[in-house]
Amino acid sequence: MLTKLLKYDLKYMLKNMSVFYILAIFFAITTRILFALNQTVIVKIISQISVGCLFAMLANILINTMMRSWVRFRGSIYKDEAYLTHTLPVTKNEIYDSKLIQTLIFFFVGFAIIILGLLIAYYTEERWLWLKSLIDSITTGLSIKTGTFIACTIGIIFLEVFNAIQCGFLGIIWGHQQYNNRIAFSVLYGFVAYLLSQSLVLFLTYVVGLFNPTIMDLFKNNIMLDTTAFKTLTILAIILYVIIIFIMRFICKHEFNKGVNIE
């Protein structure tokens, strides 16, 4: 049943997000074509318009993935659609997991579309070599493999944003336990949950620093990251975010299972 529930969530998200995916690829192609033309004044103007539209679509992919995930969560659990959702032979844990998996899938898709759009618009061998040289200059100084550096950077960004989305879920759950001003309380609680999660990451990093002088130096001194500090901080950030995401998931399910007040 979780699979069937997830199917409907994916259909909803695809219906609302596909327009941004299509437009992002479309403007990536037009940007590529326009840059290849003779750069007259008119072509330059149109090119910049196309570039602006491209980056607007790429930004909208991230923003709307977050917003639509929250809208879908609230709509299917607390609005009119909730009357159907809560009559299905599924547990509240399965309902929550469906929303979480749907968000995870569309964030992977969104990141893939963003990378694809940028490659279509800007990829040339010369630019690729320049980017590789830039990253190599960073990774060489840190004595870390380029692939590992890129994977860790993208991973931390992904976990950070995914944590923010789940904080929004918790805010919606807590907000709808109130009897009035539910949207306002949802925003407030979600923001507070996000601040607490970020503060927890910082606090736990400081605790680790009590036993690791390399990490503690980052709190005490204005120094550049060295190889050891970078690797330790990166691994620590990934571990902490994963732990916090699982803790947040547990709290969300616990609060969700207390009951639902449908609007």
Can you walk me through this structure?
The chain has 263 residues and is mostly helical. The two termini are 25 Å apart. The chain contains 9 helices and no strands. It has helices spanning 2-36, 41-78, 82-85, 92-122, 125-142, 146-175, 182-211, 213-220, 227-256.
pLDDT under 50 segments (min length 5)?
none
Q: Provide the β-strand percentage band.
A: under 5%
**Percent helix:** over 70%
Radius of gyration: 22 Å
Q: Give average pLDDT, whole number.
A: 83
What is the straight-line distance between the termini?
A: 25 Å
Keywords:
single chain, mainly alpha, flat
Sequence-ordered SSE layout with sheet pairings:
Elements: H1 2-36, H2 41-78, H3 82-85, H4 92-122, H5 125-142, H6 146-175, H7 182-211, H8 213-220, H9 227-256
Provide a concise account of the structure shown.
The chain is mainly alpha-helical. It has 9 helices and no strands.
